[in-house]
Amino acid sequence: MDMYEKLGAKKVINASAHPTTLGGAIMYPGAVSAMVEASKYSVVMSELHKKAGEIIAKITGAGAGLVTCGAAAAIVLGVAACMTGVDRDKMLQLPDTAGIKNEVMIQKTHINMYTNLVKFTGAKIVIIGTSKDDLEMAINDNTVAILHVAGMDRLGLPLEKVVPIAKKYNIPVLVYAAPDIPPKSNLRRFIVMGADLVAFSGGKALRGPNDTGILCGRRDLIGAAYLNSYEGMYEYGEPEDYKRILDKYAGMSTICRTMKVSKEQIVGLIVALQKYMEEDEKEAIKIWAERVKYIANILKDIPHISVEVFTEENIERMWNEIPRSELFTRVEISFNEKILGKTVNQVNRELMEGSPRIVANVYREGVGGKIIIYPQSLQPGEEKLVALRLKEILSI
């Protein structure tokens, strides 16, 4: 009996990439063993954070880096840093923003389920249009940051046009790029383009702990982000200034204290990040393509369905041309629900309730539907189980 069964839960085959709802990606074994090793000892957390931040900075090309408890926390910490700087009075005042700049601008095409997290700090979201004029006209004395969603870059004013305007008015740009790896070059892309802060997920393609993330960017803002969530770190400013801040407010926690990261999480994320950088990205993409092509080949002769394969073989070129959401390697199985005699939701339910349990993605439109299989978290051989189960369900 495995650990999940002992707890009364059931394992699933993850054919849905690496969503948080399924616990993120399957972690690198080396990252897991590193976390176990880290759990056996104590460490000065400020020193560990500093060393981890140096590794992140080197890999991303940023001034500094910080391990966070997920990309969502990186958004909150980034916004908080822009609002407070290293002013501890302001940190302790949040989410009350009286007297604090608190407007975060987001293009209307960039609003998603995560941008609402900005409000955790007490900040106000200001939704703007997608032109240069829309951005410039919206900036005012209360504007504290611009949140830019990397995956929606081509659905509005692109980052390369946002940054010059932001710098003109001295407004920090925070890029949300949680799912935007691969390509691994994106770890540096947004910093090179002039972003002040960038948030990545640690539990998706990086294959670290699901509850980790990365915030990287300007040293002063990373220092402020750290002070908003932790105590005892002086490395991003003048040591005596930080000591006075911490001595004055000893024992007083900020709202972001809820976002502290364990020593095991830090170690696991950093080891995963290093392993990801060592990995042959093209080989990984090739393996994903082979898995979806195998599934498509098994299903291709079933009447009344259509099967289409999408791959990332030209991901670097594609990144600059289409939204990130369309880049993932996948196989899409489409069918007419009336002809099949089953709705897409019924097919999905059969996948979930069968043996083995399989979690896929569902898209429904009119009398048609799609089952979408993502291979990124499939383990060797699981594509065969997925193909066999789909063939059983879809054959009429």
Q: How would you describe this structure to a colleague?
A:
The protein is an alpha/beta fold and 396 residues long. The protein has two domains: 24-278, 3-Layer(aba) Sandwich (Aspartate Aminotransferase, domain 2); 280-394, Aspartate Aminotransferase, domain 1 (Alpha-Beta Complex). It is 41% helix and 16% strand. It is built from 16 helices and 13 strands. The chain has helices spanning 3-7, 29-38, 45-60, 71-84, 88-93, 132-138, 159-168, 186-192, 219-229, 239-248, 263-278, 281-299, 315-319, 337-340, 344-353, 382-394, and strands at residues 13-14, 64-68, 103-107, 124-128, 143-149, 173-176, 197-201, 213-217, 305-310, 330-336, 358-359, 361-365, 368-373. The strands form three sheets. The chain has a seven-stranded mixed β-sheet with strand order 2-8-7-6-5-3-4, with helices on both faces. A four-stranded antiparallel β-sheet has the order 9-10-13-12. The mean pLDDT is 89.
Provide a concise account of the structure shown.
By secondary structure, the protein is of the alpha/beta class. Helices cover 41% and strands 16% of the residues.
Keyword list:
396 residues; alpha/beta; Aspartate Aminotransferase, domain 1; seven-stranded mixed sheet; 13 strands; 41% helix
